[in-house]
Specification:
The chain is an alpha/beta fold. It has two domains: 4-30 and 303-427, Aspartate Aminotransferase, domain 1; 45-296, Type I PLP-dependent aspartate aminotransferase-like (Major domain) (Aspartate Aminotransferase, domain 2). 35% of the residues lie in helices and 13% in strands. It contains 13 helices and 13 strands. A seven-stranded mixed β-sheet has the order 2-8-7-6-5-3-4, sandwiched between helices. Strand 5, helix 8 and strand 6 (194-198) form a beta-alpha-beta unit.
Length: 433
Amino acid sequence: MTRDHPLALDAADALAPLRQQFSIPEGLIYLDGNSLGVLPTATAARVQQVVADEWGQGLIGSWNAAGWMALPQRIGDKIAPLVGVGPGELVVADSTSVNLFKVLSAALSLQREAAPQRTIIVSERSNFPTDLYIAESLGRQHGCTLRLVDRADDIPAALGSDTAVLMLTQVNYRSGHLHDMKALSAAAHAAGALAVWDLAHSAGALPVALAADGADYAVGCGYKYLNGGPGAPAFAWVRPAHAERAWQPLAGWHGHATPFAFEPGYQPAPGINRYLCGTPPVLAMAALECGVDTLLAAQPLGGMAALRAKSLALTRLFIDLVHSRCAGQGLTFASPDDDARRGSQVCLAFDPDSAPGRAGAAYAVVQALIARRVVGDFRAGDARDGLPDILRFGVTPLYTRFVDVWDAVEQLRQVLASSEWREPRFNQRGLVT
């Protein structure tokens, strides 16, 4: 294979025009959209319009005239088909962490009221730490214990008559492992538990079918594959059958049945709207809507199914190139080789033969790549749990090209073959890794 091969793939790619929606710095290979999506070209002008016209001229009248109050529902209805739910079932609000606190608390309230013996929250040890922290905190409040499973295949066996909730991130942030939502939700239900899903690394990257696959609650991130900008608002979904069975714990004015009645007593809004809390962050939501629109632009070209097919082709090319061009350089794959079990990222562990187990080697490799304008990221491991340090490369099929994958692996090959990563400048830790 030569570089002409990925160039030919790009030339034949029906999704290639979607890259024009983004402002990507010239010469940069960006493989970190699973941490922060690229800036859509429409975002700056849209945010400026909100600032100068809707806020600057319309002032408080824009809550009605510009539809600010309806932003959580309007953007939620745009996200809904991306995750397999209907209009009016999903709202945009707060952060992923705050929304997880809301939905997990509601799920635990339902379970503990109906079956007090259910005191276990099941998750995996390598789940995103914030999710585990929130589960641990809520467990204390609800009299529950967090049970962590080491291997994804062992999750069904961990579910039992004492399980209240199964809480998982659909695509594991460290390994890229894609959980079978349908099978695991069914296993949770068979054990009498509820299934709570975090879509941070799947919404916008692959087809999600929350309703069809049996999820009970879900949250998702706005700044990764939805391209909403740093700290963009997140979203929350609750299966309609559960939505009005419990209060969520952050009972704010925007989640009130009649927000402008300003009554002293709280009456939750019907349906998913009760999962709102405070005033919508209008500027951030305007940016998020531009990001979501970049995904909706793929609908005439095959939508999420076409994006998923390209994502798998990109990650398969990455895997094949690492095998053929970086053999013998100490790399091993931490992400699944099976396409059906892999999200939109390739994860590598690095253990150089000349320095077995050297702490920080993977971090240094990532820094050396960034210096060469190839942006991936590093995730630290934990020797106590047998988790290695990870080099993580996310592909975003909206804008990642096949030639980007070729060039990234070539730069990786050069960094490893030359031992450039050993240079002191690449071994200095910064605030953000």
